[in-house]
Each structure stands twice: as structure tokens, then as C-alpha cells.
Design a protein that fits this description.
The chain has helices spanning about 1-20, 25-30, 105-145, 155-190, 380-390, and strands spanning about 45-50, 50-70, 70-75, 80-85, 90-95, 100, 195, 200-205, 215, 220-225, 230-235, 250-255, 260-270, 280-285, 300-315, 320, 325-335, 335-340, 345, 350-355, 365, 380. The protein starts with a helix and ends with a helix. Helix 3 (about 105-145) runs antiparallel to helix 4 (about 155-190). It is of the alpha+beta class and about 400 residues long. It holds the Pfam family Beta-barrel_RND_2.
């Protein structure tokens, strides 16, 4: 019985091997790696771009607003009602010209009161000085009498005490005069400040109050602009800041003037970057002073940051960086990707100069580098797409 069962099992195994088409040679070998349908090895799909060689220039484009060093917000230093307005928007004014006046009546009254206080303090000082002089004279007459015992020591002490008190009154009177004189000077300054004057020659850019308006100290009344010193201020990002020099060529385009190119020059460069924005302030002025520019206008400012007659460049998107900042690319040679460290030169938004590490005979990976390893086989989807198109056409 046992021999019969064993025979059945052997026969069943033989039938299963025949049905599965299993061959001893196939079951004995190990895995040969990933295979494509056509029998080739699997390649990573990437998109590549060519390394280019030729003239290369980097230009920075920035937005800026025209400003003026001579721009002042004029405010009232005293509280009061505006009784006259002598200038309006667009008026040309001269330094010291009265633009408006605040009612000076309360200030004039305060000046009169303080002036009277000063006069009274002076009279009080004179009276105290006279009393002090009389007491000192009495002491001078009576001290000899003390030696002849014609007067008591107590009388001399009382006299000296009176002299000391009188000296204190003189000192207080002198301090009171100084205090009242300071108050009087402040009141007279307030009286002068009831007239709002232009701080320099310029134009009235804005008027904020009307006649009859009650203003408080510090409230803005006028804005005066000196349009003879106008510049456009731009913020240069940190990556471009090292290449900006006083002699850097500059072109401006002002939308309000039709965006025609205007030549300019760098007027000022800040000594340090703004720590909040990591940008460098650069002030630019127009070469042609006849161009009618107004503060507040916007402009596009282009700066030539550098140029090379013969440069090797690559797409800026293809450049990767290590954690320590070292730049590198994946270059493709004969269908194989290799990690290549590079040294950068001029850096632009679209393309970047490569000083060391590449030549124009290779292409680099633009997209699809996430899973690459040094020596990985790659398939360029741009090349394959071109082949497919040719086959269909």
C-alpha cells in the first residue's frame, strides 16, 4: 500500500513540472537584475539640457521709486486755529516764505505775562540786594562795638543770621529771573512758530489743512519738496550686491514717460546690507537732468552686473548644492550620469557661468535627479520624444 502511494506522488510531481514548463537550468540560476521588455537594462528617465559656450552677460532688473532728499513734512509746534493759508499744492516757494499762520493771540498774551514776571523778578532781586547791602553795612559798624562791649554777641549773631537769609533771598530771586527768562524765550519761540515757513526752496506737494482748522502740536500742515535733487532708490538682493560698483552701467525705464530707456548712474551705495531684507540700498540718478521726473514715480532699473566674452554656461535650474553649499550638477556621458562638482562665475536668473568642472561637450540633468547615483544609466526623455516624433512623421 505504501509503495502504491509513493508512486502516485511521483507521478503527480512529474505532471506538474511538465504543465509549468519548468526546466532545471531556469530554476537553478539567480536573479539577473531588472529587465526591460526588449531585454535591455532599466534606465532612469531624466530631462537634460546642453552646456553652452559663448558670450555671457548678467543683468539685474529691479523696481524703484523716485525720491528727493529735500522733502519735508511741515507741522505746527503749537495748538491753535489756522487763520491764514498763503500757499497751495504746486506753488513754488522760497526758503523762509510764510505758508500759513496759526492764531497768535494766546501766545502773545503768554509772552506779555512772562515778560511782566521777568520784570517783577528783577525788581524783587534789586530789593533783596539792597537789603543785603544794608545788613552787611550794619554788621560792619557793629562788629567794632562788640570788642568794646558796647553790643552783645547775641545781636551780632542775629545780624549775621539776617544776612544769611538775605543772601538766600537774592539767590532765589536770581534763579526766578533765570526761570522766567527761559519761559519767556520759549514763549517768544512759540510766537515765531505761529508762522509756518518753507525750510528750503521747492514746491508745495500737499496741503493737509484749511483756513479755520484747529491744529495740535505736531500735526502736519504742508509737505514741501525740493525737485532739484531727485533719485530712484532700489534694493539689490544679496546675490547681486557684490557686483554693484559706482561705475556699473545703469538704464532706467519710467512707465509714466513711456518706458523709453534713460541712462543713469549710481549716486550712492549703502555700506552694508539691510539685516531685515538682506538687500543693499543703491540710489540712482538720471544723466539727463531735463527729464521731468516727480517724486513718487516708479521706475525699472537695469544694471549690467558683469559680462564674459567666452563663457561656459548651464541652466541655473540644473545646479544643485550640498549641505555645505558646494554646487554640483549631474552630467550625462554616453547615457551614464556622473555627479560633478563645479565652480561658479557670473550667476544669472536663467543661466549661470561655470568656471571649472564642465565643458561644452556634455549635457546635464535638468529634472529627474532625485534617485540618481553616480554611474546610474539614464534615458533622456527629450531624445526619446524626438525619436518618437520622427518615427511617426
Amino acid at each position: 500500500m505504501g509503495l502504491r502511494v509513493t508512486g502516485y506522488v511521483a507521478a503527480l510531481l512529474a505532471m506538474m513540472m511538465i504543465a509549468g514548463g519548468c526546466k532545471p537550468s531556469e530554476s537553478s540560476g539567480g536573479p539577473k537584475g531588472p529587465k526591460m521588455a526588449g531585454g535591455g537594462e532599466v534606465r532612469a528617465s531624466v530631462e537634460t539640457v546642453e552646456v553652452e559656450r559663448g558670450p555671457f552677460a548678467v543683468q539685474g532688473d529691479y523696481a524703484g521709486e523716485f525720491q528727493s532728499d529735500g522733502m519735508a513734512e511741515l507741522s505746527s509746534d503749537i495748538a491753535g486755529r489756522v487763520i491764514t493759508i498763503e500757499a497751495n499744492i504746486g506753488d513754488k516757494v522760497e526758503q523762509g516764505q510764510v505758508l500759513a499762520e496759526v492764531d497768535a493771540t494766546p501766545t502773545q498774551q503768554r509772552v506779555r505775562e512772562l515778560n511782566a514776571s521777568v520784570m517783577m523778578s528783577r525788581a524783587s532781586l534789586e530789593e533783596s540786594r539792597v537789603q543785603l547791602g544794608n545788613l552787611r553795612s550794619d554788621l560792619g559798624r557793629k562788629e567794632p562795638l562788640l570788642a568794646r562791649q558796647m553790643i552783645t554777641e547775641r545781636e551780632i549773631e542775629e545780624l549775621r543770621s539776617q544776612i544769611s537769609a538775605s543772601e538766600q533771598r537774592v539767590a532765589v530771586a536770581e534763579a526766578t529771573i533765570a526761570q522766567n527768562q527761559a519761559r519767556l524765550a520759549s514763549a517768544r519761540e512759540d510766537l515765531r512758530n505761529t508762522k509756518i515757513r518753507a525750510p528750503f526752496d521747492g514746491l508745495v506737494g500737499e496741503r493737509y489743512v484749511d483756513r479755520g482748522t484747529y491744529v495740535s502740536p505736531g500735526q502736519t500742515i504742508f509737505r514741501v519738496i525740493d525737485d532739484s535733487d531727485i533719485y530712484v532708490s532700489v534694493r539689490i538682493p544679496e546675490r547681486d550686491a557684490p557686483r554693484v560698483q559706482r561705475e556699473t552701467p545703469v538704464t532706467l525705464r519710467v512707465g509714466a514717460l513711456g518706458s523709453a530707456p534713460l541712462q543713469g548712474k549710481i549716486h550712492r551705495i549703502a555700506p552694508a546690507l539691510d539685516p531685515a531684507t538682506r538687500s543693499l540700498r543703491v540710489d540712482v540718478v538720471l544723466d539727463d537732468e531735463s527729464v521731468r521726473i516727480r517724486p513718487g514715480m516708479y521706475a525699472r532699473v537695469s544694471m549690467q552686473l558683469g559680462s564674459v566674452e567666452d563663457a561656459i554656461t548651464v541652466s541655473s535650474q540644473a545646479i544643485l548644492r550640498e549641505r555645505d553649499g558646494t554646487p554640483y550638477v549631474w552630467k550625462v556621458v554616453d547615457g551614464t550620469a556622473h555627479r560633478q562638482e563645479i565652480v561658479l562665475g557670473l550667476v544669472g536668473e536663467q543661466r549661470t557661468q561655470v568656471v571649472e568642472g564642465l565643458d561644452e561637450s556634455v549635457s546635464v540633468v535638468l529634472r529627474g535627479h532625485e534617485k540618481l547615483q553616480d554611474g546610474s544609466k539614464v534615458r533622456d526623455i527629450n531624445t526619446n520624444a524626438g525619436d518618437d516624433t520622427g518615427a511617426k512623421g
